[in-house]
């Protein structure tokens, strides 16, 4: 007498979906082994503490291993790499070396909004209820 439940379509779909998502979830949990050292070095470069984790993780995902090792290991970065990294941190757009077009990696978390976050919303974010802009402010 077997105690194993029969394999139904629903159970099969559940098992296969979980099997497909498991490697993806594990990869997202830790972008690479020295993530914290990478993030600390980016904090030193940018002058912001703390840096938004989604921004650092997205940058780590897009950069190749050689660039990440250069950031972690060196005291002085090549000017080209320093410029690309700082541009990505401040604008949320990373442009790989040798490419003309950048890729948006973490636009809402870009550092360019950190200094004005109390007065200006990230573009494309609603500033209040629909039509909020039509009302006169209470304090002029």
Summarize the structure.
46% of the residues lie in helices and 3% in strands.
Radius of gyration: 22 Å
Q: Rough shape?
A: flat
Q: Span from first to last CA?
A: 79 Å
Biggest sheet overview: 2 strands, antiparallel
Q: What percent of residues adopt helix (DSSP H or I)?
A: 40-55%
The number of helical runs is 5
Give me the strand/helix succession. Answer: HHHHHEE
Which segments are poorly predicted (pLDDT under 50) over 5 or more consecutive residues? none
Strand percentage: under 5%
Mean pLDDT score? 79
Report on this model:
By secondary structure, this protein is mainly alpha-helical. The protein is built from five helices and two strands, in the order αααααββ. The protein has helices at residues 9-29, 35-46, 53-62, 65-73, 79-91, and strands spanning 93-94, 103-104. Strands 1-2 form a two-stranded antiparallel sheet. A hairpin with an 8-residue loop joins strand 1 (93-94) and strand 2. Helix 2 (35-46) crosses helix 3. It is flat and about 65 Å long. The model has no long low-confidence stretch (mean pLDDT 79).
Layout of strands and helices, then pairs:
Blueprint: H1 9-29, H2 35-46, H3 53-62, H4 65-73, H5 79-91, E1 93-94, E2 103-104
Antiparallel strand pairs: 1-2
Helix pairs in contact: 2-3, 2-4
Write a concise keyword list for the protein shown above.
2 strands; flat; mainly alpha; 140 residues; two-stranded antiparallel ribbon
């Amino acid at each position: 007498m077997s105690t194993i439940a029969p394999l139904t379509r629903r159970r099969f779909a559940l098992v296969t979906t979980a099997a497909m998502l498991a490697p993806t979830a594990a990869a997202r949990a830790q972008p690479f082994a020295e993530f914290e050292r990478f993030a600390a070095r980016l904090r030193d470069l940018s002058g912001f503490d703390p840096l938004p984790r989604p921004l650092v993780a997205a940058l780590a995902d897009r950069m190749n291993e050689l660039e990440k090792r250069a950031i972690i290991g060196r005291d002085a970065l090549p000017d080209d790499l320093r410029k690309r990294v700082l541009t990505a941190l401040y604008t949320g757009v990373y442009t790989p070396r040798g490419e003309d077009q950048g890729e948006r990696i973490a636009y809402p978390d870009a550092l360019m909004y950190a200094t004005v976050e109390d007065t200006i919303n990230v573009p494309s974010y609603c500033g209040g209820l629909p039509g909020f802009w039509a009302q006169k402010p209470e304090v002029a």
